[in-house]
Amino acid sequence: MSAAATVVAPPRALDAVEAGQRVEDLLDRLSTTGDQEVYAAAEELVRVLMDFYGAGLARIVGRLGTPADRGTGDGPLAALLDDELVSSLLALHDLHPEDVGTRITRALDSVRDPVEVVGFDEETGILRLRPSVEAGDGGGCGCPSTGAATQRSVEDALACFVPEVEQVVMESVTIDREPPLLQIATRPPAGTAGAGATVAATAP
Question: Pick from 39, 18, 35: which is nearest to 27 by CA?
Answer without folding.
Answer: 39
